[in-house]
Please model this.
Amino acid sequence: MSNIYRVFAREVRGYVSSPSSYIFLLLFLVIGSSLMLFLNRFFAFGAAQLDGFFVYVPWLFMFFIPAIGMRLWAEEKKTGTIELLMTLPVRDIEIVLGKYIGALALVLVALLLTFPLPWMVSSLADPKTPFDWGPIYCAYLASFLLGALILAVSAWVSSMTENQIIAFILACSLTFALYLIGFPAIVSMLPEWLGNLTSKLSPYQHFSSLYQGVIEAVDVVYFVGAIGLFLYLNTRTIESRRWA
Amino acid sequence: MIKVEKLVKNYGTHRALRGVSFEVGQGEIVGFLGPNGAGKTTTMKILTCYLPADSGTAMVAGYDVAQSPVEIRRRIGYLSEGAPLYVEMGTIDFLRFVGGMRGLKGEKLNKQIKTVVERCGLEKAAGKLIGELSKGYRQRVGLAQALIHEPDILILDEPTTGLDPNQIQEIRSLIKEIGKEKTVILSTHILTEVTATCDRAIIINEGKVVAQGTPQELMERGSGKMNVIASVRGNHDLISESLRGIDGVSSVEIVSPAEDGVARYRLTSKEHLPLAERVFHVIADNGWALSELRQETVTLEDVFAELTK
Model:
């Protein structure tokens, strides 16, 4: 446990001292709020609601999360520090978890920094109909779980290459593929049984039902299970040293 | 301390190790010597439990690398090739991280950091980021992290590559100092390194151990011929003729031609015979002026070239 914490703390300190994490946060905020305010014509609607922002979260994450995850392992392999790390007397899973949770902290910070958006919207709401925070919290939970899943995918992909660009492109593609199999348009083209199966495997459906304000155990279990699966794959890839 | 038997490792179709066997005793400083790509680094990576071997066994401090990697890693300090470090970290932060991961904490950790900083001469680097340090200092930080938990065994992959001559001297004396108490394995393709620091050398070529022994023993292996160099003033046809006539001389060649009438000759002996005295007498009897007479020493370079041909 303390080893996981040490790896985590090292990663977090890396983010704090690196300018690229600030640029990342800034871009995420600017692009995220622009999408909501302009693309979704927030001002034109005249309604104090936030659907606009969360609709774009999967698409925002599809690019932003792989950008965080791509360096997790690829960079260590490129510079050779992975050898230092993996010859320490700790288990591989501890290092995998420490690095993952460190990057997850950055995702969490990015999400929390968007909090002025709902706050601003709530202050615009008609005082006679109090603003309902419940769906907002739900949407944040959904976004966090989706981000955590894409991060696990990106971390795994990053463990297979020493090229960050390749890791980024593969992680974006894999995320997009996972979305696709849950799209109603795609699902309706498949035989019914297959469509049912793929839409249950896709994070898109689970995200949609969560962010619409319904917290169901099955959706949460899906995310936790999928994250576990990709972290397991990540550990196996690291253990195999096939890239060494 | 370390016992390796018939290690085999393939990278795809490339056969990196083809049955490497050797032993290293406690407190020895052993040099792995070999051209680039000989299998030195691969052997070290197997000993540090970073890579698994395809077949063969390696025992380190009584543990099998395939069975108890964590136990072995606890007892090993490892500096991998090029000393890869986290350049964005401060020197002390980095040592604290490695020390922590190696189970040191609190007062003990602070004490160990202080010890390795002193020992590796890192006082000036203490307040800096690793990325700001020179190559020599980085190498020392790499050594410091390998020493922080006082391991019994130190494995150093090319510890002096890329350093300037002064830094090389410093690192070497540091390794010698450490080697007084600990078992050290270092790899190099610089032969003088082995003569300067190691008790014993293991020469590896194309994935096999081709020779091992003390630098002295290895040099003797290559010194079947005891050559003598002599510089003499006079008619060199006449001199060559007389030198060739000495009992035990198999050939005479002129190494550097006459300069002010002095030429340098190399005499190759037939057997393991010291020729110098006989050469002196022949030259003195003829009344020629002798300005240089020495036994040519066989260098490790010669042995190495011979063995890795």
Summary: Residues 165-179 of chain B form the longest helix (15 residues).
